[in-house]
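User: Can you help me understand a structure? I only have the sequence.
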Amino acid sequence: MSGSLFDLREATRIPAHDPIAGAGDAIPEDPPEHPLDTVQMQEQHRTLMQLYAQEMDRQRDNRQQMAMDEDYYDGIQWSAEDAQALQDRGQNPIVINHIAPTINWMLGSERRTRVDFRVLGRTKDDNQGAQTKTQLLKYLSDSNYLPFERSQGFKDAVVAGIGWLEDGAQHGDDGEELYSRYVSWREILHDSKGRFDLSDARYLFRSKMLDVDVALKLYKVPDSRREIITGAIQDGLHYGLSGDIADEPMASMEDDYGGYGHTVRSSSVMHLRQRVRVIEGWYRVPEMRTQFYNGPAKGQKFDSANPEHKALLQTGWSVIDKFHMTMLMAAFTSAGLLWLGESPYQHNDFPFTPIWGNRRARDGMPYGLVRQLRDLQDDVNKKHSKAQYILASNKVVMEEGAVESEAILAEEVARPDGIIKKRRGYELQLAVDRDLAPAHLELMRDSARMIQTTSGVTDELLGRKTNAVSGAAITARQEQGSLQTSTYFDWLRMARQKQGEKQLALIEQFYTYQKVVRITDDRGQASYITLNDPELPESQIARSRADFIIDESAYSASYRQSMVETLGLVLQRLPPDLAAVLLPMMIEMMDIPNRDEIVKQLRAKLGIPDPDSDPTPEQVAAQRANQQQQQHAEEMMQLTEAEARARVEGLQMDNALKRVQTAGQRIDAMGKAVTAAAVISNQPGVAPAADQMLAEAGFEESPAAMQAPDMMPPAAPPADPTQPQPGVSL
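Assistant: Let's start by predicting it. Here is the structure, written out as tokens:
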């Protein structure tokens, strides 16, 4: 390779030729060289062509297999040679297509369970603008028939292994400024060494056929450069297709081709419609660029001519020089460049989004579900064709000269009521292998069952009668089949996420003018929103930043139904107040019309706020009042607790004081008792009178006083009246 694709650093858009400007000027004898015809541009064109051819060679074998996978789905399951060989020996090339119902079930499941999306603001101030962007994306989805385009891409992923969706902007055409559409895998050559999301892919080529007059006008090719178009046309066959830059899957859409290799009646030479292959090359080049380091424009390339960027610098946000992979785009034919420049899209990504089916581990090549079923399908066709041939044919073993005419014999043998005459003395025997037909049919049925086992699309999923009797058994088999095919739906979800992010970036870039769009809800009611209204800040598309979010993740209808049934059993066991709170969540999981409206009305009736929407001023006021009421209740509770503690502490103090008073009274009583005991001891005659007084006062003798004499303490010696006694005042 003499030149490198990645040497181009300062690529800028080459201005198109304006046929009106300078119309009255004299034509110079030697017109100046066109900017796309310089040595540098010729070298760039050569590099792009070499990369394109290199990727085509790398993917050639697998792309032929992908085309064959589509043929099997379409019922073209015999090669031209095998079909002709069967017909030559009187055997029909029978096709019993078991692949098509399997694929159709997956395609129907995708159509029945199309998921919704939302746009969420990155900050609280962006929420209102995010709702506007959600409505705008839904409007664009309707106007571009995006669900149908995406379903076609999903079909390519399941059948061939990869499907493609394109999102871009158009000017001057009928329809919306932003478009989303399906692109056939036959037109795309991607960097097969890149990741599944193409985040590190260096290039992607889109090859498309255009009528010559359309190509000349579309790219505004001047007369001095018409050979860029006409030089790429091959006169004669294939509508002028240049076969050296197209493989068989690309060229098959332009060929006059009939079934099993037969050409159509008219010759391609008779066609007046000339076509040329134009290639779009999207590729990344490394560069150091100045971009915003922080702020609302973080990551965007700084443009000194943009007043908004200047204003951001003046408000304190900073920029840095950073390594960056810049997306470039070139349009060219095999003869030269038609356009070259930076990508017109600010998201700096490929405008094409892949929907993967499967990816081969050893080289990253895509393949679909059909690839694993083709051998089994061949066995079904061949076994059925062989069994039919055995049942419908007869073998004749005879001696030479046994019949007068072998032609008449063959005709009579083929008739169900044929009469065969043979000469006397000659042997003639009909040898048929009827016993082989049931064996072939049984092998055919085994192969048909293996197709279901391999694909995961069983009879239960197809709604056919099986040996599963109970509903639980049928549901279990349906779950197993759904899990086996869930990989394809998971890749579709990833593709939807990537495509939604690109669409969101495109509307923020291109919808900068005031526009009124009509939105239709699930009930068919139309509402109108105004974009970029100067009096409504939330309608300014470019001022807010948001993220694209897939709203649902369940792709299996049976799985969703099972979850709803499980949640319904849980609700039956809950108290009514808790069941009412969970009821809207249960309805959100159901596949019913006007589901969102039903949930909205239920939440309003039950007083449950919507978790996905900002609260209204009334809800904010009610929430504040509730918070104040709760705060007041907490303060009262704290005050009550403090009073209770104070009362407990007071009671404890009273009890302590009473205990002190009781102890004092006991000490005083003990002192008086000691004095009385001393008096009694000096005057023993007083004791009976004291006992009588105590008995009349209700005094009961303590158990200690009733002890046995041997247990009583020894009597104190008589007191000396001349000595002072304790507790007795002299």
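Now, to help you interpret it: The chain has a mean pLDDT of 75. The CA atoms of residues 107 and 155 lie 7 Å apart. Let me know which part you'd like to focus on.
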